[in-house]
Design brief:
The chain is an alpha+beta fold. The chain is 20% helix and 34% strand. It contains three helices and six strands, in the order E-E-H-E-E-H-E-E-H. Strands 4-5-3-2-1-6 form a six-stranded antiparallel beta sheet. 28% of the residues are buried.
């Protein structure tokens, strides 16, 4: 299975601690494909159902189903970045975002990291 930058997968994020996002969640792959092909980890930004986030913040990006291929509006939380073992990922992506949308996500993550 080849995990690629810009793809969206549903993965189980448990176990977690504290305020980390838990359970089965959409995650957007941020790490570059050269890293994703290695037996390392895959860096992602975690998403949540858009209905759960009533306001927009500069730390989040709200994406519509037409942009993601997911059934629901999804808010990706730029401050919830995780590196996951590739064994957590299912065989196929659930969605994918365009390069233009990926650039918007990158801007949110840069904001959260002060880059």
């Amino acid at each position: 299975m080849a995990i690629e930058r810009g793809e969206i997968y549903f993965v189980n994020l448990n176990p977690v601690k504290g305020r980390e996002q838990a359970g089965q969640r959409p995650v957007l792959v941020l790490s570059i494909d050269a890293i994703n092909r290695l037996p390392l980890v895959v860096t992602v930004v975690v998403g949540t159902n858009g209905a759960n986030i009533t306001r927009d913040y500069p730390t989040n990006i709200r994406l519509q189903p037409v942009e993601t291929g997911l059934a629901l509006e999804t808010v990706f939380l730029g401050f919830q970045i995780r590196s996951l073992d590739s064994k957590r990922f299912p065989d196929h992506a659930t969605g994918r975002i365009s390069e233009a949308t990926l650039e918007k996500v990158e801007a949110v993550v840069r904001y959260c990291l002060g880059l």
